[in-house]
């Protein structure tokens, strides 16, 4: 969730204390291992099976407490149907997963991340490096489950406290079981953007917000009050989310003219993020009813242009066609104009 270049800036910042710098370095080491595991554990992508209406949703959640270690299944802290615990992070992860799965089921008829009722496993208080006493500064999907760090309490706070963070990570699972997008170049930017897009919609759905009322910020609960910036990403205005001595400037880009293949996927995701924002606000009303439906139908599409190395242009073309199929020519014009505005 937190881009590596942000953590690298923290690790090298003279404005950060020794503990914060070491916590950032430890998180970078852990993230590098997780990225390798995620590739090895990649699940099946979409098949040619017909998409059927989801049966009634039956939530199946298991929340584990890593107890500040790297043991993902150290101790089962709460399972489906259990009463609330005294651990806020356990409860927040449990609740946010439930909200996210209910959103996908209600808005799109999807039955869990694999559309087959898959159980969801998540781990809180995750921290692979025991020497990192402050806590893991990130959240992740490793191909099988989610894990959330506590943050260092200096630069980042507890990750399960942000609903959109949890929804973002679960959406990586949805992408894994549908388009199966790679995590590099334009496909990687799309992969990250799709998680931001659906994370934003989950939050808006939960708070009953129309597109014009939403803040379009991602990770707005992660920063302590001393950090200069309201969030980690701004979908409406990529590149403006923060500017801080410790974190550095927000490096996201908003237009394809700024794109190169060597940019990090968290940077390039700003392009499709803004395209979705423009689409959702162009339609007006609730983002998931039209813009979200178009993005979801594109994600599960069997169109040959939606493939693991999908480009922005391929994704954009299919969204335009889905808009016309679902809502007519006028809708396709709104979507096309959004992509033109970001240079795709």
TrEMBL record:
InterPro entries: Metalloprotease_M4, Peptidase_M4, Peptidase_M4/M1_CTD_sf, Peptidase_M4_C_domain, Peptidase_M4_domain
A Gene Ontology biological process term: proteolysis
Peptidase M4 C-terminal domain: residues covered: 179-344
Peptidase M4 domain boundaries: 87-176
Keywords noted in UniProt: Hydrolase, Metal-binding, Metalloprotease, Protease, Zinc
MF term (GO), any: metal ion binding
Family: Belongs to the peptidase M4 family.
Protein name in the entry: Metalloprotease
């Amino acid at each position: 969730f937190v881009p590596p270049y942000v953590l690298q800036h923290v690790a090298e910042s003279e404005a950060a204390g020794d503990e914060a710098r070491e916590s950032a370095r430890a998180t970078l080491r852990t993230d590098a291992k997780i990225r390798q595991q995620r590739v090895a554990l990649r699940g099946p992508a979409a098949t040619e099976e017909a998409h059927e209406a989801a049966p009634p949703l039956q939530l199946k959640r298991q929340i584990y407490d890593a107890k500040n270690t790297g043991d993902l299944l150290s101790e089962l802290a709460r399972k489906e149907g259990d009463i609330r615990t005294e651990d806020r992070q356990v409860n927040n992860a449990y609740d946010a997963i439930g909200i996210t799965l209910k959103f996908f089921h209600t808005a799109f008829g999807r039955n869990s991340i694999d559309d087959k009722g898959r159980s969801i496993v998540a781990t809180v208080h995750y921290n692979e490096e025991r020497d990192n006493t402050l806590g893991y500064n990130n959240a992740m999907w490793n191909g099988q489950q989610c894990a959330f760090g506590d943050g260092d309490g200096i630069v980042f706070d507890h990750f399960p406290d942000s609903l959109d963070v949890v929804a973002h990570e679960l959406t990586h699972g949805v992408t894994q079981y549908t388009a199966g997008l790679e995590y590099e170049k334009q496909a990687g930017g799309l992969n990250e953007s799709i998680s931001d897009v659906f994370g934003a919609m989950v939050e808006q759905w939960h708070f009953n917000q129309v597109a014009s009322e939403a803040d379009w910020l991602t990770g707005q609960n992660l920063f302590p009050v001393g950090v200069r910036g309201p969030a980690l990403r701004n979908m409406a205005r990529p590149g403006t989310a923060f500017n801080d001595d410790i974190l550095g400037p927000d490096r996201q880009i908003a237009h394809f003219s700024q794109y190169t293949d060597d940019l990090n996927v968290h940077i390039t995701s700003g392009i499709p993020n803004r395209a979705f924002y423009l689409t959702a606000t162009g339609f007006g009303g609730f983002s998931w009813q039209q813009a979200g439906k178009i993005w979801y139908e594109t994600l599960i599409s069997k169109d040959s242009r939606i493939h693991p190395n999908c480009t922005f242009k391929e994704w954009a073309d299919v969204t335009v066609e889905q808009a016309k199929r679902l809502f007519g020519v006028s809708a396709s014009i709104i979507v096309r104009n959004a992509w033109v505005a970001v240079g795709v």
